[in-house]
Amino acid sequence: MNKHNKSEQTETLTSQQTVKSSTWISKWKTFNEDAYTKDFSWPILYWLLTIVAIFILFAHPIKNLLDTILVNPLLAYCQQGIISDIVFVLLFAISAVFFVLQIRKHVIPTLNSLAFATALLLVYYLIFKTDKNYTYYYSIFGFSYASSFIFSLVLLVMSYKSYLKPLQKSTSKYSLLDDYADPDKYDDSYSRKGYAASIANHINATSSDVSFAIGVIGEWGSGKSDFMLRLKKVLKAGKADNENIVFDFNPWRVNKQDAIIEEFFKTLSKELKPYNQSISNTINDYSSRVLKTAKETHYRLVDTLINSWFKEEDIQEKYDIINDAIKSTSKRVVVFIDDVDRLTGKEVMEVLRLIRNTANFTNTFFVVGIDQKYIIKVLQGTKDFANEEEYLQKVFQLTITLPAFKKDNFISQIKANLFTDDLDETYKKRLNSALSHISVDPTERGAEQWVFPYFHQESLLDKMIDTVRDLKRFCNSFKIAFEILKDEADISDLIVLELIRNKSVLVYNNIRNRNILTRDIGSMSKLILDATKWSELKMEIDEADRSALSDAVEYLFTDASFKNQRKIVLSHNFFIYFSYQIFDLISFKEFNEALELDADEMEKTFRKWISQDKESELSRVIYYIGDFENSNQLQKVVIVLLRLWYPSSNWYELAKQLVYTYAGYNNSRYFNNDGILHKRFLYEIFKDSSIALLTRAWLISEFDKAIRAGQLDETKLSIGKKELANITFHLFDQYLNSNPNNGYDVLSFYALNDFTIVGSAVTHLPHVNRRFRRYLSTNPNGFKDYVKTLLRPSRFPYTGELTMEPYLQDIFGNWQTFEKKLSETDFGDENHDKLKSIILKYLSEYFNSNRTPFKIEAIEDAKFVDEFLNFKRH
After folding, report:
1. How distant, in Å, are the alpha carbons of 214, 343, 765, 860 from that of 250?
2. Which of 112, 276, 493, 498 has its CA 20 to 30 A from that of 294?
3. Cα 783 to Cα 822: distance, rounded to the nearest angstrom
4. How far apart are CA 438 and CA 494, in angstroms?
5. Cα dihedral sign for 722, 728, 731, 733?
6. 75 burial type by CB count under 10 A (0-12 exposed, 13-18 middle, 19+ buried)
7. Given pLDDT bands bounded at 50, 70 and 90, which one contains residue 849?
8. Which residues are registered as beta bridge partners of 757?
């Protein structure tokens, strides 16, 4: 390794260590002092002070006891020496390393353990270390073995704990949404706050001699938990002397069916204890008796024993005591039981028995969230009921079906979840635009309905999201996908794909695996739905979701004009949406960054991609560009494409599309139909010296041909045929002055100049012919190249029949002038001289016969022409 590399590596290591150090130090800034002090138990301090006092007061007998059991039989035999030094040094080192490691993990001794350590050290130093009757051995390092041992022991046995502040909830583009419907932190998404307040008023106005059960009926994800939390909040608030004892009971957290009743009564005991200190034992006894009675159904042998030991009056007496205790509080006991749809059939039976019989106390209200279809299904599995639905009606005196809610505010909630403060405004605009294609924002309903009539009544978003839980699940998965693909995918397609993923994994996987897709025969670059396979799959989808999923899938594989060039319907984009990688594609982010560069840097970037075998991908990206930021960006791209052009490439065709094919759109989009501004834009391209002269002339000819054919109104663009002709001639003059060495290109450029048509004859203007004739007369190499282009096949496929360059007489005035020039020219090249002799042999015959095609009679001459001019016979 050289010195320079070592220096770089040292700098890297130093910077890494600095980062680690700063991170470690910054952690201490979140030290929670309140939690640290609150964790201290004052009773422990009293006990420790008492113990220290006892040791001080009874030091003599305690020392005698320790002498008997520890000092005389063991410590009296300890000796100084190198081995002892090593042992105690190692012990102290181990404890010190242990302590440092704890601190590095931000784990520190608790105040309780520090108090214990202090008490231990006080006892050691006040009672033992100062006692002259004891002999303390010292190491060669100057510390006593006993002190070393005590300090090591303290460091090892202290209780260590982390006291960092908890992670703070923050809303960012990376943060995911939890499923906890905290009414203090989240908006009333279902608009049921008022309904919850109304139910609370009825409960607050009710007293009952027995328990009162309220069933909150709703399917999974319909907002039962949200409603119950809001109801609980109202019941807990109320007056200053609240008349309600409100608490949650979660039977699904109990790991055994038999423990459900026991856990409930433990919770009830805890809630009633502040109002009746002696009620806990009664509740525990009652719970135990109930549990034994509950087991009688399964254990008939135990039944006899229980009945002989316990009398029914015992349970009744305990029930009455608990009932009277609740009455004496002058409060209602409101128990919230949620997530019953997580329980098994037997566990559900236990909860219902608890509500209906076991805890049938006065002024006790049970508010239970249930998915009725699920509860009936699991009860049917127990086979203990003749009619499960009728049984539920007996349990609940009131059933609440949650009010329907409008989904109009879903779009605003999605925006609130996704449009975080740290999300760039550019991405907010893209998201907003994409959401508008699949949803209707209530604030813009009037306009949006007419723009996208397909979703006039119920938007695709409304169909795909049924609940706030669905909305949060979508936002979570979309955040991840969007963070990776925000610069690479069509955002509206990405949204719909994530909606499908959260609605039906079955459908999502069939799309991902292309099981229901095939290529469009009319356009092999596009994917379409396989009608047969899609129909079969739809039969496997829940009927309630079938319509929404069908609309979503069809939306994905519809080639809508508002989607960008990364839409999923294009087969080369497909795997971006599932692999989260662009493979051999060009990153949109990089491409958009390239658009911001000047023309020279943009050209370098494009050439780099071409060198990476991404030419076809670059061509495709440009082809599908829907719009540019402004006319300057469009102009730069066109200039670069014209610079890149070479034979067999399509860069010229792309540039022509952007400038000529889209001329009408450009005039409206970028120039507000101001023809003068548009002309100035075009002229800057026509006169850009970085573009090949012939390439510019070709582009100008597109406009010239369109004006001649009446396809382009020159008045709208403020661009005239004569102006274009003058520019083309000027470019032609520059081209000839550069001494080009390709006769075919020279003739092509000549042909692009202004011309007139008389009958079927095309005649170029005199000044064009004069300029070309002067070039051929004064440039030997140019004339040599021109002669090589003179003979050409009269038809294809080529059969040996020839004709001559059609503009020869226009250029030279007549064929005789050319004949004289050719006769006098000595090319000094055997092949060109031989071609010259063959041309002179047929020149006069060709023009005197009114340009009738001819064949070369001599076989050797014909063979030479075919080989030299690369003519292929058929």
Report:
1. 16, 10, 96, 105
2. 276
3. 9
4. 11
5. negative
6. middle
7. very high
8. 762
Query: Using an 8 Å Cβ cutoff, are 164 and 107 in contact?
Result: no
Structure confidence by residue, pLDDT tens digits, 296-332: 444 333 343 334 444 444 678 888 888 888 888 888 8
Token pair belonging to 526: 């596009």
**H helix or E strand, kind and range, residue 868:** helix 859-868
Determine whether 166 is exposed, middle or buried from the number of CB atoms within 10 Å of its CB (0-12, 13-18, 19+).
Answer: exposed
- Compute the mean pLDDT over every residue in the chain, rounded to the nearest whole number: 83
- Tokens at residue 767, please? 């000044």
pTM, to two decimals = 0.65
- Chain CA centroid to CA 610, Å: 29
Residues near 671 by Cβ (< 8 Å), separated by ≥ 6?
Answer: 631, 677, 678, 681
**What average pLDDT does the segment 420-433 reach?**
91
Q: List the Cα angle 240/245/246 in 5-degree steps.
A: 105
Record the tokens describing residue 248, joined without a space. Answer: 């949650």
How far is it, in rounded angstroms, from Cα 125 to Cα 142? 17
- CB count within 10 Å of CB 541 equals 17
One-character DSSP codes across 576-596: HHHHS--TTSPPHHHHHHHHT
**pLDDT-derived band of residue 671, with 50, 70 and 90 as boundaries?**
very high
Of residues 453 and 280, more confidently modeled:
280
Burial 793-809 (b: 16+ CB within 10 A, else e): bbeeeeebebbbbebbb
SS3 258: coil
Rounded Cα–Cα distance for residues 741 and 782 (Å): 7
pLDDT at 438 over 50: yes
Read off φ and ψ for residue 183, nearest 5 degrees: -65, -20
| Residue given tokens 């309600």 in the structure block | 244
| 588, pLDDT greater than 90 | no
Helix (H) or strand (E) holding 366: strand 364-370
3-state secondary structure of 191: coil
Which two tokens mark 267? Answer: 């919770």
Tell me: the pLDDT tens digits for 154-213? 888 888 888 888 877 777 887 877 766 555 556 656 667 778 888 888 888 888 888 899
State how far the alpha carbon of 445 is from the alpha carbons of 409, 415, 449, 551, 560, in Å. 12, 16, 6, 21, 21
Per-residue buried b or exposed e for 370-396, using 16+ beta carbons within 10 Å of the residue's own CB = bbbebbbebbeeeeeeeebeebbeebb
Euclidean distance between CA atoms 561 and 627, whole angstroms: 12
Go through the chain and tell me how many residues it has.
Answer: 874
pLDDT at 129: 78
Q: What is the pLDDT of residue 189?
A: 61
In 3D space, the residue among 330, 156, 352, 321 whose CA is nearest the CA of residue 242 turns out to be 330
Burial of 758 by CB count in 10 Å (0-12 exposed, 13-18 middle, 19+ buried)?
Answer: exposed
pLDDT band of residue 456 (cuts 50, 70, 90) is very low
Give the confidence band of 404 by pLDDT, cuts at 50, 70, 90.
low
For the chain, report the end-to-end CA distance as a whole number of angstroms. 67
Q: Quick count: other Cβ atoms within 10 Å of Cβ 533?
A: 15
Calculate the alpha carbon distances from 335 to 1, 206, 268, 289, 365 in Å: 73, 15, 9, 22, 6
Here the tokens at position 778 are: 């004064």
Question: Tokens 């305990």 sit at which residue?
Answer: 318
Amino acid (one-letter) located at 461: L
**Nearest-5° angle of CA 813, CA 814, CA 820?**
110
Q: What type of residue is 364?
A: T
As to burial, measured by CB atoms within 10 angstroms (0-12 exposed, 13-18 middle, 19+ buried), residue 867 is exposed
Which of these, 125, 106, 128, 107, lies nearest to 117 by C-alpha position?
A: 125
**144 three-state secondary structure:** strand
Amino acid identity of 776?
L
| Cα–Cα dist 289/652, whole Å | 92
- Alpha carbons 477 and 480: distance in angstroms, whole number: 5
